[in-house]
């Protein structure tokens, strides 16, 4: 594996995916994993039925949200299960209807046993999301251009942020050009999110993140014996047995204190890890346009955290827009914002400035910012 460069397509097979308007291919490719080592990663490539332009089909690379940590949770194993894909099929079809190829990485650890997903390690999933674009270019049936946009939500929003950060370097190898990135509800301000989730129905995310960081950084940096209770350690094999709904049902019957005995954000060895994986700590930004989308009633990622992220990125000179959809929750915002996002992506592929993008109209009163004064977009309904 080490002899093959990241982005190399290893193998592929045509498969059938119900309700998706495309020819689907399950692929395996090389990407950069833990400790910078090359690893095999799986994923999907969706090719629309329309003929490719002479320049090739542009690509939207989708980074999935929280669906679990085991290899059985790989979206490519069952793309009809939206619990695994974390994206409505209507949203995927809206991208395909534009004539774009859609790629979707499983990420390292999902689809490639025996290791667990290094959950919320943004650099790894970001590289995985970029490398599948390079791999798809080697699939002759896809007939792709070298232009792409990244889109992800939740865990995938963090992934999109890290792919965006690497767009001008890692993402620009072999002449590929990232033209934009869309980050839906990206996790940021981790200490605040940690406190927010401790008593929520999504507290099992904290357990997943602890084990995921341990998988990536080792026990010296993430000492499980100090962080998890005896029960918490005993339940680690559970993470290989099922995906989101299974983990929710299995783990959320325990209180936070039954699984976690010490807040890891307070450990000195853990602080650098959180800082490394929080996009609010980026010290430089690319020129690639970025769009942040979130529901105003998000019950998993506090809206104020993406406001802080937006302000920080603007202070660095980033080209950022932020759209907040009032009344919509964490996942409900995806379907409602899809058409608005498709318009934004179309402008990126047309090489038009972000300021020329059509205003979001998915609901009345979408709050928009573009590194400046917040405005209210008009709505068609």
What does it look like?
- By secondary structure, the chain is an alpha/beta fold.
- The protein folds into 2 domains: 9-189 and 282-376, Rossmann fold (3-Layer(aba) Sandwich); 201-275, no CATH class.
- 31% of the residues lie in helices and 19% in strands.
- The chain has 13 helices and 11 strands.
- It has helices at residues 82-85, 89-96, 122-137, 155-165, 190-197, 204-217, 224-227, 230-234, 244-251, 256-259, 271-277, 303-315, 332-349; strands at 9-15, 23-32, 38-47, 57-63, 101-105, 144-153, 177-184, 290-295, 320-325, 367-369, 375-376.
- An 11-stranded mixed sheet has the order 1-2-3-5-4-6-7-8-9-10-11, sandwiched between helices.
- The radius of gyration is 19 Å and the shape is globular.
- Mean pLDDT is 93; it is low at 372-381.
Secondary structure: elements and pairs:
Blueprint lengths: L8 E7 L7 E10 L5 E10 L9 E7 L18 H4 L3 H8 L4 E5 L16 H16 L6 E10 L1 H11 L11 E8 L5 H8 L6 H14 L6 H4 L2 H5 L9 H8 L4 H4 L11 H7 L12 E6 L7 H13 L4 E6 L6 H18 L17 E3 L5 E2 L5
Parallel strand pairs: 4-5, 4-6, 6-7, 7-8, 8-9
Antiparallel strand pairs: 1-2, 2-3, 3-5, 9-10, 10-11
Helix pairs in contact: 2-13, 3-4
């Amino acid at each position: 594996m080490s002899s093959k460069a990241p982005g190399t397509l290893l193998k592929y097979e045509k498969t059938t995916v119900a309700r998706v308007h495309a020819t689907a291919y399950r692929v395996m490719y090389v990407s950069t994993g833990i400790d910078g080592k090359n690893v095999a990663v799986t994923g999907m490539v969706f090719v629309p039925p329309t003929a490719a332009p002479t320049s090739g089909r542009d690509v939207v690379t989708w980074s999935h949200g929280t669906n679990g940590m085991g290899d059985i949770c790989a979206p490519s194993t069952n793309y009809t299960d939206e619990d695994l894909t974390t994206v409505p099929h209507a949203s995927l079809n809206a991208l395909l209807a534009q004539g774009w190829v859609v790629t979707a990485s499983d990420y390292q650890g999902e689809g490639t046993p025996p290791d667990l997903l290094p959950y919320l390690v943004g650099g790894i999933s970001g590289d995985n999301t970029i490398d599948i674009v390079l791999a798809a270019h080697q699939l002759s049936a896809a007939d792709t251009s070298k232009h792409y946009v990244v889109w992800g939500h939740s865990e995938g929003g963090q992934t999109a942020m890290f792919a965006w950060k690497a767009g001008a370097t890692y993402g620009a190898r072999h002449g590929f050009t990232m033209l934009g990135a869309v980050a839906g509800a990206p996790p940021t301000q981790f200490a605040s999110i940690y406190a927010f989730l401790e008593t929520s129905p999504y507290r099992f995310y904290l357990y997943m993140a602890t084990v995921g960081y341990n998988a990536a950084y080792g026990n010296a940096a993430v000492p499980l014996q100090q962080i998890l209770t005896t029960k918490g350690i005993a339940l680690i094999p559970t993470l290989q047995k099922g995906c989101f709904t299974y983990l929710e049902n299995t783990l959320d019957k325990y209180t936070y204190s039954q699984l976690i005995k010490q807040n890891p954000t307070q450990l000195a060895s853990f602080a650098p890890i959180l800082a490394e994986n929080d996009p609010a700590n980026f010290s430089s930004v690319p020129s690639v346009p970025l769009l942040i989308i979130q529901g105003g009633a998000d019950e998993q990622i506090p809206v104020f955290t993406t406001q802080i992220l937006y302000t920080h990125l603007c202070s660095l000179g980033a080209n950022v827009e932020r759209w907040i959809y009032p009344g919509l929750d964490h996942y409900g915002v995806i379907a409602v914002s899809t058409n608005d996002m498709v318009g934004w992506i179309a402008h990126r592929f047309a090489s038009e400035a972000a300021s020329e993008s059509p205003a979001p109209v998915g609901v009345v009163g979408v709050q928009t910012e573009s590194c400046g004064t917040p405005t209210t977009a008009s709505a068609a309904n």
